[in-house]
Amino acid sequence: MSTNTVVDDITLSIWHQVQYTADLCVKCNICTSHCPVTQVTDLFPGPKFVGPQAQRFRNPKEISVDKSVDYCSGCGVCTMVCPHGVKVMEMNAKARYKLYKKQPIPLRNRILGRSEILGMLASPFAPVANAMLNLLPVRILSEKIMGIHRNAPFPPFSFETFRGWHKSVHSKSARQKVSDKRVVYFHGCSTNYYEPRVGKAAVAVLEHNGYEVIIPDQVCCGLPMLSNAEFEAACNNAERNIKSLIKYAREGVPIVGTSTSCILSLKSDYQHILDIDTEEARIVAQNSFDICEFLLDLADAGELNTDFQPVEATLPYHSPCQLRAHNIGLPAIDLMEMVPGVKVDHIQAECCGIAGTYGYKKEKYDIAQAVGKPVFDHVKASGSEVAVCDSETCRWQIGASTGAKMIHPIELLAKAYGLQEFYFKN
Amino acid sequence: MIRYDTIVIGAGAAGLTTACQLAQAGQKVVVVATGIGALLLASGCIDVLGFHPADSTQPVTSPADALDKFMAARSNHPYKVIGRENIEAGLQSFLKIVNQTGCHYRGEFNRNWLLPSGAGAVHPTCLAPDALTKGELSSGKSMLIVGFQELRDFYPTLISQNLNEQDLGVKAGAVSVDVYIPASSKMNATPIELANAFEQADFRKQVVNAIKNEAKKFDRVGFPAVLGLKQHDAVVTELEKALDRPVFEISALPPSVPGRRMYEALKKALLSAGGRLIIGSKVFDGTIENGKVSQIRIETASRLRPLKAHNYVLATGGIFGGGLNANADGSVKELVFGLPVAAETNRHKWFQRQFISPEGQPVFNAGVTVNPQLQPVNGGNAPLADNLYAVGAILAGSEWTRGRTGDGIAVASAAAVASQLAR
User: Could you tell me how far CA B10 lies from the centroid of its own chain?
Assistant: First the structure.
């Protein structure tokens, strides 16, 4: 892993501070032309207008934001395509925070921002909770009372949590690896409460490569709260995670995750959106890796176990916005194509529409569906029963709209390593 | 393990066409860029040589014929080192790449199209998208120019009056349409929103109804270049059927829809040939040691990430494109490798007194000096790094506004480098 040793700190340059990047904008509108939201609704004028252009009229001490900023989905395509380095999405997230300083945050947003608490409450009663969630009257009621769209793609709660499995099953099994090659796994809420299979696959693959997998204390990364303008609550979670992870980061133990948005929070959002400007935050950021990024680095160093069994499949793959914002390219494609027989059918679309909790909201559901349509059409036209995506909410959105079985790339690797019984049987 | 055969830095016309040719030749290629390159700010055409001398009012009708005179007058221009064969090869490979993706271009080296510009001037260009070529001015056929109230910066009356006053033998008229453009903000539609709207039959019908009587008085109908993005060909065909006459597009101000179509076509060609594209990652630096580039480092969300390849192609653009930085002390810096830059160092001589000067602005000639293989040098022919090449506007002497040679430099230098590396 020596290739990722940090020697320079790119975050110290003034031009990396979000608000100053407004001055780099030349108004070329390349961001507007790629924004998936502005193309389907007249409620959002476009990233240039509410981002760098409006920024010039914002006094740091005053609240003066246009309400349309609430229609930014936070996908970050604008920041990615900008040839001048303007942090458009980050600017909008900060403006949204200020918007909700002026007006109350709806209960709905507070609930959507706390998937962790929902999971904690519902997981022990998963069968009942899932049955309730699937009842149309319940859905209609929650739409009417709270503004959560009746067709919002909620995944089923898992009765067994990932942490529960790890503590009571895996750590007691002979499989668990003890090694001097250690890695920290940040599982996030979705893996813990909804998709423990992703976490099991991650543990299986990492252990198969000789790593001891540490599951540290952790709370929700805070991104759902951040994107619902609850910066104080998000900061609180961020501080707790940094506190738990810093000792590993200082020892140089890599922190890997299967949730692209959780890891992006560790890598970037804590510092650049929540303004947590501490040495600890930077060290954690510099030691955090998307799991496919981590594994591809191993491959480049000649250290990846390549005893893959062939998997004959052409798999539609959606690269989530929250992964592209890592600015590491798309390691999952190279990694999956190392498996003999696998061909990745990369879907060329900006966004699936869900953007975290955006597409769950009554007033934004239709926008999210319109944004995601090219992705859905591609998956349906492919005829494949399985499609791949690194991000959980995108998987739920695409799965709900296409009927495809959605998997994380790590699940394909676990299968190719012949480890699937590992997480299906236990 | 070295993952890539070639890393191309920059996603403009030069970088993408280089990468496409290498990927199609079977190389493992990755393009890394800060953002999307200048294609969305350009006309979507390939200008090779538009005017010579630069203050001539007569456009060049054949770049192939005018090239020798041009090169004699501009001895420092990159065409000199790139050579005529590579210009020809570059045009051919560009046509091959984009036409394979279904984005149709037409043109040849020995003929310029003479197309109406968004200001009603004559735009001489070598290769142009099908829909733009139907605006050819030398045909003498009359044209109705259509504008939209909500589309700022495209004024049909300005265009038609300018065309009429130039005695081009083309009668032009104008009409401005006021229809609701779906998904656009009130009073302000972007070209992309209009392009999406044109893909909807209802919207087309409204537009046709608004202009059909006026259109009958003209041989053909010209729209701003917003006639669809993904279903562009079908949109044009439908409009021609409904209006019963040829329909063409005129390049307008950015973000350019033909530029976007070109970008999407090159991206598609690259990815379908197995190439990789990393947009959003600025290249922080590159290291040259023992006469070779050993790696570059890109800025990721939290740290610098090294990327390695056997060969590296620098396609970051000039001062406009962000490949070079002109500083207050008169220095001009190349930003990835810190290569020596040939530039006017006296800041008082950077600009002429005239804003639009026939001599061009000297500072925009700043760039990297290369040997006949297009490898950066520091005087002489010995390369600074055996595996480093430069293409596009970063080449010294490029001042492309003068003579309109920017796209020609891009595709020609791309072909010159690709043909060496693909061997």
Answer: 13
B225/chain A closest Cα distance in angstroms: 14
- Alpha carbon distances (Å) from A246 to B252, B300, B301: 53, 20, 18
B254 interface with A at CB cutoff 8 Å: yes
Tens of pLDDT along A97-122? 888 887 888 888 898 888 888 888 88
Length of chain A: 426
Q: How far is CA A270 from CA A394, B306, B402, in A?
A: 22, 24, 47
* Structural domains present in chain B: 3-103+260-422 (3.50.50.60), 142-245 (3.40.50)
| Mean residue pLDDT across chain B | 95
Q: What is the mean pLDDT of residues B332-344?
A: 96
Convert the pLDDT of each residue in A280-313 to its tens digit: 999 999 999 999 999 999 999 999 999 999 999 9
A307 in reach of chain B (CB within 8 A):
no
Instruction: Collect all residues of chain B within an 8 Å Cβ-Cβ radius of residue A301.
Output: 1
3-state secondary structure of A201: helix
For residue A96, the number of C-alpha atoms closer than 13 Å in the C-beta half-sphere is 25
Q: Which residues pair with A314 in a beta bridge?
A: A343
Q: Is A214 helix (H, G, I), strand (E, B) or coil?
A: strand
Measured CA to CA in angstroms, residue A220 lies from A36, A242, B186 at distances of 27, 12, 40
Is the whole model's pTM more than 0.90, yes or no? yes
- Spatial distance between the Cα atoms of A134 and A150, rounded to a whole number of angstroms: 10
Q: Is the pLDDT of residue A2 over 60?
A: no
Smallest Cβ distance to A329: which of B38, B41, B276? B276
**Which residue spans within A131-278 are E strands per DSSP?**
182-186, 212-214, 255-257
State the CB neighbour count (10 A cutoff) for residue A349: 18
pLDDT for A166-220, tens place per residue?
Answer: 998 888 887 777 889 999 999 999 999 999 999 999 999 999 999 999 999 999 9
Domains and their CATH numbers in chain A? 3-102 (1.10.1060.10), 107-146 (no CATH), 162-299 (1.20.1050), 306-416 (3.40.50)
Enter the DSSP assignment of A362: T
- DSSP run (H or E) holding A296: helix A291-300
Report the amino acid identity of residue A28.
C
| CA distance, residue B191 to nearest chain A CA (Å) | 8
pLDDT score at A62: 67
Neighbours of A70 (CB within 10 A): 22
- pLDDT exceeds cutoff 50 at B156: yes
| pLDDT of A4 above 50 | no
Cβ-based neighbours of A381, under 8 Å, separated by 6 or more: none
Residues of A in contact with B182 (CB under 8 A): 42
B261 touches B44 (CB < 8 A): yes
Residue A5: pLDDT above 70? no
Determine the average pLDDT of the residues in A71-88: 93
Mean pLDDT of B214-239: 97
CA-to-CA distance for B38 and B98, rounded, in angstroms? 17
Residue B38 to residue A83, Cβ atoms within 8 A: yes
Q: Is A212 helix (H, G, I), strand (E, B) or coil?
A: strand
Structure tokens at A45: 């004028």
Cα B63 → chain centroid: 17
Do A30 and B255 count as a contact with CB atoms less than 8 A apart? yes
- Structure ipTM: 0.90
> For residue B143, what are its two tokens?
């044209």
Examine the pLDDT at B185 and tell me if it is beyond 80: no
* A301 and chain B in contact, CB less than 8 A: yes
Note which residues in 60-79 of chain A have CB less than 8 A from chain B.
Answer: 79
**Binary contact (A301, B1; C-beta < 8 A):** yes
Chain B partners of A4 at a C-beta cutoff of 8 Å? 303, 305-306
